[in-house]
Amino acid sequence: MMLTAPPPENSAYQYEPLAPGRSIRLVKIAHDVNSPNGLSLRLQQFSLEQAPPFHALSYTWGHADFEGLADEDDGVVTTTEVDCNGQALSVGANLRDFLCRARDSGRYCIDSPDQPVATTPERTSSKYTSDTNLTVPTTELGVNPSQVVGPGSARELGANDVAAINDELRSCWLWADAICIDQSNDGERTHQVQLMGAIYRAAKRPVVWLGDNDPPEDFMWVHDVFVPALDKAFNKMGRQWFENTRFDLRDDRVEALLSTAICERWRRSWIPCFNFLRRKRWYSRGWVVQEVVFRDSNQIIVFCGETNLQWTRIPRLINIMNACNWRTIMNDVLISHGGWSSAESAISRLHLSIRRWLLFGADRLHLPISEAEGPELEEARRFEKVLRVLMHMASYSFTDARDHIYGTLGIIQVILGNEFTFDIPPVYDSAHTVESVFAATTAILLQKMPSFDVLAYSHTLSGPRKTLPSWVPDYSREKSRAFDSYRTAHGRIQVNFDAALTSLNPNGKQDFFNIINQGKTLVLKGACFDRLPAYSSWHACYQSCSTASLKWGFGWLTRRLYGDSSDVYKPTNESVPEAILRTLMTDFASQLLPRDAILTHGRQWFKTIIANTISSRPSSDYTTAALRNNAGTLQQCDPRLVPPLSEIFAAVDAHVDGAADVRELRDNPLFEYMQFPVTSNLVATKKGNLCMAPWNWVGGDEIWLLKGCKTPFLLRKVAGSGKRAKNRYRIVGEVYVHGFMHGEMMTPQLEKRIRRVGIT
């Protein structure tokens, strides 16, 4: 049937109210030569439980692509009108493009033409055949071509799958939020956002729309040829073999395995490939996470123009990049090509790590922070995982900042299960401001988690949202890995710090906090035990560069560390160089490295930092001449910590000659642990204690032990006069104080000084 209804009137589409309960709308497309864009929509209500088979569209409302690599703004969204049930419905241009492609291909149509819809998954063009021959035969590799690397993996689509999907695409209904939800009705938006997770789980499959333009040739070569070839080789040779390879595959062994042609083409194609992905807005949008994260990889369809992509391919590549420690180096290269200030988060987004957090049952819900609290704290364990998801979602973009919470509710409910609730309704009225929603979220986490770990996330490099209280994390601003809590070690290692002996409190932590002043002030109990000096002559100055940079090293290596007054760090009875290293590591490796190995690895660490930086980052700041200019101050450093210049120059020569590379740095046991100096400063306190303080500390900031907090916090007095201002502070950030992280400072004398303190 071909509809020939008259053109729609200019009146805006008037939605019929949804029936009570779990009601949704679904849409079908019809060819209509008399309507704008040559199509009409048929919108119909169903209960979610009795809805016909449907696909849920995952797309971006704004443009499909960023204008440039650094463009994060939607700009002006172009809209157009389509006929819907005889009225004019406004949709974005990107959604219009999808509807037109669907109409032309017979997807979701009332009158589907009898034509194929999806292309075959293996889309390799004949021009690639000379590149695709592995020198190790497939049978020798012994790997099923459908095998995938890493957690959450699934097989790729086969011919039978494609045939079944073609039938689905012709017969299924479609759910798309901009069409199926009355966006002008705040009450309906609230209701449908609460159902969003259930809608995407009820859909037969999600359909990802990356935009109307077909992928470039370099991307398709990586997708069609390189990823399958690399995957087979990786599974054959193993992770350890590939850890010793360069990301650009300049290695005779790799070229013998994959072929010289493939390796050379990878070196030409990988930057254009990732630039293409980086420009796709879909990968930056927060709503898309819960739209695809619930489904097996083989259930997801990806369309980019006329091209049907395999969903598993890019996550598979990211998995291998992570396993081989390539990702950080590749990020640096992309940044050096300009416009990639967000390269780390952009590449990280391509691998939806939230999927592996959606685990069910206490026996599978492994949470490093709260594991030590005991298995009975099931609720607390699940809410700690909620915090991790919220922090991860900060790297995604939402038009409305409140959706950093609302857009995660579907994922949160899956984590919490049926036993626990997260009482944050997705209300979009003026009373529910960004600040009130973020504060309410933090209040729930303070109450439900085993300790006040959420406070550790209240600071970022750019500073918190000015209108937020200092105790409320800005869930809309991305935290780098270096802003992770000192106790989580980036989620990889459990460190059971308990500076305030929180775990020894038999009554829990409910007596330790209160929220007053209309939700703006957090009242805690604690005591100050140290302060930061007005100036520390040798503190590690923050530099806007990676941990392994020479500039960062000169920021404090070239100063006489800790002075000459003592050779022993009294709180731990360690040598000062050892105490410095352990402070820089925030003691992550104390359980893994023998005491006599700390200094050996530390010397090697500093030598490799300087040598690798000079050999790999040529500039006026990173040269052997700059190193010689600092020779005098370097020689003043303790030789147990800083190697002599002769060793450093020998290491530089080895790196330049190609006899060594960054692998030496990453193989050093300290690499995993010395991450925080990028966002923290090594400082000697007024009492002579070594600490890692937040990058934005100032003289006079106070170090507090707060009941319910397992690490000390740096607080700053709020300016003002009167009794009320006397006990008001703002949180500057979490502090690591070497020798005082396991309750050593919680003496009876300090207990007597514990008082209430207001955090604004």
UniProtKB/TrEMBL annotation:
A matching Pfam family: HET
Residues covered by the Heterokaryon incompatibility domain: 168-291
Protein name per UniProt: Heterokaryon incompatibility protein-domain-containing protein
Upper lineage: Eukaryota, Fungi, Dikarya, Ascomycota, Pezizomycotina
Stretch list, region Disordered: 112-131
Compositional bias segments (type: Polar residues): 117-131
InterPro entries the record matches: HET, HetReg/Transcr_Mod
Organism listed in the record: Lasiosphaeria hispida
Superkingdom of origin organism: Eukaryota
PANTHER family documented for this protein: ANKYRIN REPEAT DOMAIN-CONTAINING PROTEIN 39 HOMOLOG-RELATED, HET DOMAIN PROTEIN (AFU_ORTHOLOGUE AFUA_8G01020)
